[in-house]
Amino acid sequence: MSKNSIWQDDFRIGTHQLDPKGQTQITAICHILQEGASLHAELAGFGFEAMLQKGQLWVLARLKVEMIRYPVWRERLTLKTWSRGQEGMFYIRDFMVEDEQQYIIAKASSAWAAINHRTRRPEPVEGLEQGLHSLADQIVLVKKLNKLPELQNQKLLRKRMVEYTDIDILYHVNNVKYIELIINSFPKETLLDHTLASIEINFLGETKYGEDVLIFAEPVTANAQW
């Protein structure tokens, strides 16, 4: 197995990553996943700066995170991430988060697209397979990432204008910020009384500074699944 096949990094949970229940916020976990993906791509020669020189950018198209257990303050964890190769226009990347006893506490799968920096249209990435050495059979989630169905009986929960701290280095709303906006649209009591077991999201377009984000919701089942 090539040294570039799996990226591994250790980290420790800080107070700024905790929610009111003393558990690590799902957004903190997603930030860790995103950083691991970025560092692994950089190691292989396909990081932000290298891609920009080619006139390309990485954008996250689909993400699913399953939480087995939420870590707590000061807990030391290990992130492992690897490429699973290409499926159509998407480049698939999986993640595992382990505790100090090497128990898996979080699993995730993601689909990324490379877009032209100017046109914002998807493009292939030359030489990516040679750099990242994909592990197609190392699958962490049973269900494949697919396009999510449209809501049928949705209710508007919130409308909010994009502010400066919502945008990232690409001048659009960062993918983790969307998750934060969704979570903050639910009542405090709902968030305190329930624990988020998993989240799946499709990113369909960019949102820029000053634009409005409208958040709709529809219950899928009677057991608090949205």
CATH classification, class level: Alpha Beta
By DSSP (H or I, 4+ residues per run), the number of helices equals 5
What's the overall geometry?
Answer: globular
Neighbour order of strands in the largest sheet: 1-3-4-5-2-7
- The name of the CATH architecture is Roll
How many domains? The number is 1
Strand content: 25-35%
Question: Largest sheet, if any?
Answer: 6 strands, antiparallel
Radius of gyration: 18 Å
What assembly state would you assign to the polypeptide chains in this entry? single chain
Q: What level of helicity do the residues show? A: 10-25%
- The chain-level structural class is alpha+beta
Q: SSE string, helix = H, strand = E?
A: EHHEEEEHEHHEE
Count of individual beta strands: 8
Poorly predicted ranges: none
CATH topological fold name: Thiol Ester Dehydrase, Chain A
End-to-end separation in angstroms reads 40 Å
- Average per-residue pLDDT, rounded, comes to 93
CATH superfamily: Hotdog Thioesterase
